[in-house]
Amino acid sequence: MNNSIRGSKKNSSIFWIIAFLVGIISGLAAVLFRWTISSFQELFYQADEQSLVSNIHTTHWMWFLIIPVVGSLIVGLVLYFFCDEDRNGSVADVIEGAALNNGRVDLKFGVTSTIVSLITLTTGGSTGREGPVVHLAGIISTYISNLTNAQGISARDLLGCAVAAAVSASFNAPIAGTLFALEVVLRHFAIHAFAPIAISSVAGTIVGRLFYGNVTEFSLQNEANLEFYFELPAFILLGIFCGLIAVILVKTIFRVDELFTKVQQNFNSPIWLRTTFAGLVLGLLALQFPHIIGVGYETTSNALIGSFDFNTIIILVFIKMIAVIITIAGRMGGGIFSPSLMIGALTGLAFGLVATSIFPTVSGSETLYALAGMGAVAASVLGAPISTVLIVFELTGNWQVGLVVMVTVSVSTSFSGRLINKSFFLSQLKRRKLDLISGSKYYLLRNQILSDLSLDRNSDLINAEFSNKPAFIESRCVLSSASLETALRKFDEQNTPYLFVIGSTECMNANQVIGIIHHIDLLKIFNKTLTAISEEEHS
């Protein structure tokens, strides 16, 4: 398969059939992943993710300590023996694959990360299943792209199809799954991508509903009423507050990760010691607060129906944030979306209890604040306001509160996006020296070096320049290891039609010149990159 598959209706139809099959396969993978987590949690804790806290009496307290420690040790050993890097894969790796790796992820690393996340989530890690599911979808699309020799747009669209189907099957959210793939992974809303991704998303949803039924993840038992005009300013304040909570969460994860890494390097300790320490901390927390175990949907559901008092909420938010930070910084597996839902729902409920107590005559239900807070924190962490708004609706089945959710999410993402590089995932990539915040085109410009280009070898011009204008030569030399971005900046500074490319730091004579790069040629290369990306994003 190649880009010509889009050249005719026949080829488009074939691609849509492939997209449908990718959707089914990815949906089945997501369902299997979810079922495996639930089965092992029931085995270890005698309760699934929706009843762990309420059935706490069925599990001996000792297991809440032992299981996370053993699980984290196994995670560390898997990373130590089978992974080239002391980290796990995440949505960030799928974004990188879409932007820079021809719509592909590393298969070996992806499989290892999926196993690590599965162990983490079944043994007490305080993360979510959406990140591993997205990475698992990336593995599936990569295998199919390799099998069909899909390249360029086709490969990236297949990646979007797999991600959309996996998210839809996992959360029974076909609309949000489609937009998540476009907004977060592909990072554009091209028309050519929408149809196959929507088809895959529907296919994934059908698979999910065959196994779990057409039910929402969360049930809102109390009517969430809005006292329209009077209450909107409160939701604007809630948006700022939730954005701040998201910023604190993300920045603290990175700070603690840096601290753990520094300690690990100073003591030259293996990765399994780091993960085991994280598991020990999680086990100690779980002894008193089993709410932190796994994805936390039971606690999130209880927050959405207002089951907690103010003091309990504050404690749970604090403890959950610590648990998420320790899990991720400890290099255990799992995603951050589900934890952000729980933290957001609790934060919103706490805000709602205060707001409704101060202004009882002009306030609606405090559970409406919980719903808005859930979306606001999650959207700020993911950097995906559109798909998060929709996934909140689809997770709860409540479409009547769209106004306040959109207001709160918009404010929170606008506030937090300035402080955490748009999202948790893009911040992760930037820490790996992959700055995709401005788009892949700028990263490619920064990371393509001059030695990769075909240089002008005009020796007559080189000799003439060095013999006639030696005083001006050094300012017009650029290292062959310099990026295209550096060369373009130097062209602007020197106002010259060409630069001399050299292999060393000295630029004293013509023999040190490898070749010449012309300004017009460099601009053509940049324009070609911009045109190709623009055509894909707007076609």
Provide a compact summary of the structure:
The chain is mostly helical and 539 residues long. Helices cover 69% and strands 3% of the residues.
| Distance between the amino and carboxyl termini | 19 Å
Strand order of the largest sheet: 1-2-3
- Taking pLDDT < 50 over at least 5 consecutive residues as the criterion, the unreliable ranges are 1-10
Q: How much strand content do the residues show?
A: under 5%
Integer average pLDDT: 86
List the helices and strands and how they pair.
Layout: H1 9-45, H2 61-82, H3 91-100, H4 107-122, H5 130-148, H6 152-171, H7 174-186, H8 191-212, H9 228-266, H10 271-288, H11 297-304, H12 310-329, H13 337-358, H14 366-382, H15 385-396, H16 402-416, H17 424-431, H18 440-447, H19 459-468, H20 470-473, E1 477-479, H21 484-494, E2 498-502, E3 513-518, H22 519-538
Parallel strand pairs: 1-2
Antiparallel strand pairs: 2-3
Please give a structural write-up.
With 539 residues, the protein is an all-alpha fold. 69% of the residues lie in helices and 3% in strands. It is built from 22 helices and three strands. The chain has helices at 9-45, 61-82, 91-100, 107-122, 130-148, 152-171, 174-186, 191-212, 228-266, 271-288, 297-304, 310-329, 337-358, 366-382, 385-396, 402-416, 424-431, 440-447, 459-468, 470-473, 484-494, 519-538, and strands spanning 477-479, 498-502, 513-518. The chain has a three-stranded mixed sheet with strand order 1-2-3. The two termini are 19 Å apart. The model is unreliable at 1-10 (pLDDT under 50).
Features:
69% helix, 539 residues, mainly alpha, three-stranded mixed beta sheet, 3 strands
